[in-house]
Specification:
The chain is of the alpha/beta class. Strands 3-2-1-4-5-7-6 form a seven-stranded mixed β-sheet, with helices on both faces. Helix 4 links the parallel strand 1 and strand 2. The chain has two domains: 37 residues, no CATH class; 166 residues, 3-Layer(aba) Sandwich (Rossmann fold). Helix content is 36%, strand content 21%.
Amino acid sequence: MFSPEGPSLRELAVQALSSVERGYDLLAPKFDHTPFRTPDSVLDAVASALRRLGPFGAGLDLCCGTGAGVGVLARVCGESVTGVDFSAGMLDVARERTVSRGPRVSWVRGDARTLPFADGSFDLVVSFGAFGHFLPRELPGLFAQARRVLRPGGCFAFPIVAPPRPSSPAYWMLLGFDAVMRVRNALWRPPFVMYYRDFRLGDVRRELEWAGLEVELHALREFGERPDGSPRVRLVVARRPA
């Protein structure tokens, strides 16, 4: 799962016993060599889908990490691109890797639950792989923030993977991971919120609609279909009404 350039077992243990912010500060230099980084295949598929929905002017990558999603925005936004994250270490790595060509890119340290931007600042907000760090009770506020910074007609977009079947090894791996994290948080402070199974499409769609966003689902056909014919990966597009 980890390349030779990735973190050691000891480094992962230190990260896991830290707060979320401190943990990612420590992991930042080697983050792109871990399975936690969104794969390029997902980034490319999302960029392709967003091109069909655009064009867009200003874009925001919510919980940008080392900036992989900012690369997607740079392909579909013509005005400017911003990455926001609360980990200073992740932002440092992102700045080092900024490519000068294309739209103007900026990096901002901030909390996604209280975004430091004016109302209606962006045409497109994206996020990749970050929602496991938010408890279900935090989603209404998070989605309200995304809606607030969108311009009328703007989109909040993110990929979501269909949950694995109980008969698959992936199901039991995710179940075990979440169980370990819950035990860790019951015994150790500060907590490290990272739960992969709490972000469910039905709940997410309902919360987005309650936040005042109109939800569309776009199949990312690059990843095929499940045996029942449903897409393995969808792009959720939540639009602020014009």
